[in-house]
């Protein structure tokens, strides 16, 4: 009669296998999705300078409590205990120009690859005002700078005495970036005297800044080297004269 052999199973092995299987399932976020303001994929949120905006992150297809995390750029946003599980809301207030282009991301705590990001597109008009008086000596260079940001980017121009400035290639130079508009005038002349206006115009508004340019007479350059050379020559002449007349001088004494 054939004897049946049974494989020796280490004590506790079935329990370990089941535990591993459960842990494996817990680490896989199969079917889990997130949405931010009803968007299931990354998106751009366009807004004007309103007092506040709110972002709401929601877990979908979850059969258990899921913790959520919020990030502003790479920095983690602090959340209250009652605002972390399955649904989480953050409020951005006050909204300002520095929030333009910032990315907010909602992530699943146990699987950070499950996430949705939103980029803020904050629209604002040029913030430009005031005036400035500049005194510059004739034949010197001068630069007028307008530091202004806007979204969308504003159209920029220069006026002189309330008339469009005619740019001269060898005399004027204009430099512009997303937040700087600059006018350089090379070797200023008396004819450059006047009020220059930096104008920024966008669909949301406009801004201006005045520069009162006063060109002063060219100051005479003190001939330091020539004076020193002349003093040396005079000194040497006197010295040589004394040496030449030393006999007479000694007789007098």
UniProtKB/TrEMBL annotation:
How does it sit in the bilayer? Single-pass type I membrane protein
Q: Which UniProt keywords apply?
A: Disulfide bond, Glycoprotein, Immunoglobulin domain, Membrane, Transmembrane, Transmembrane helix
Q: Which Pfam families did the record assign?
A: I-set (PF07679)
User: Which residues are the signal sequence here?
Assistant: none
Residues passing through the membrane, by range: 226-244
Any one GO biological process? cell-cell adhesion
| Domain of life of the native organism | Eukaryota
Record-linked Gene3D superfamilies:
Immunoglobulins (2.60.40.10)
Gene Ontology MF, one: cell adhesion molecule binding
List where in the cell it is found: Membrane
Q: Note the InterPro entries from the entry.
A: Cell_adhesion_signaling, Ig-like_dom, Ig-like_dom_sf, Ig-like_fold, Ig_I-set, Ig_sub, Ig_sub2
Q: Which residues form the Ig-like domain?
A: 53-117, 126-216
| Designated name of the protein | TMIG1 protein
Question: What taxonomic lineage is listed for the species of origin?
Answer: Eukaryota, Metazoa, Chordata, Craniata, Vertebrata
């Amino acid at each position: 009669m054939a004897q049946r052999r049974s494989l020796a199973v280490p004590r506790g092995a079935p329990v370990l296998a089941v535990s591993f299987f459960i842990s494996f399932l817990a680490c896989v976020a199969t079917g889990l999705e997130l949405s931010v303001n009803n968007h299931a994929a990354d998106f751009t949120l366009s807004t004007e300078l309103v007092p506040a905006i709110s972002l709401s992150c929601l877990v979908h297809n979850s059969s258990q409590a899921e913790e959520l995390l919020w990030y502003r750029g790479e920095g983690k946003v602090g959340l209250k205990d009652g605002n972390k599980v399955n649904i989480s809301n953050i409020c951005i207030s006050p909204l300002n120009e520095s929030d333009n282009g910032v990315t907010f991301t909602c992530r699943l705590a146990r699987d950070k690859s499950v996430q949705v990001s939103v980029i803020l597109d904050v629209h604002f008009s040029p913030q430009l005002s005031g005036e400035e008086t500049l005194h510059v000596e004739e034949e010197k260079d001068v630069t007028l700078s307008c530091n202004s940001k806007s979204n969308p980017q504003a159209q920029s121009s220069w006026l002189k005495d309330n008339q469009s400035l005619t740019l001269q290639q060898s005399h004027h130079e204009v430099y512009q970036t997303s937040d700087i508009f600059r006018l350089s005038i090379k070797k200023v002349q008396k004819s450059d005297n006047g009020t220059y206006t930096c104008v920024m115009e966008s669909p949301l508004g406009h801004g201006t800044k005045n520069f009162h340019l006063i060109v002063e007479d060219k100051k005479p350059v003190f001939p330091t080297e020539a004076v020193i050379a002349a003093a040396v020559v005079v000194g040497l002449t006197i010295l040589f004269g004394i040496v030449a007349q030393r006999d007479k001088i000694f007789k007098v004494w």
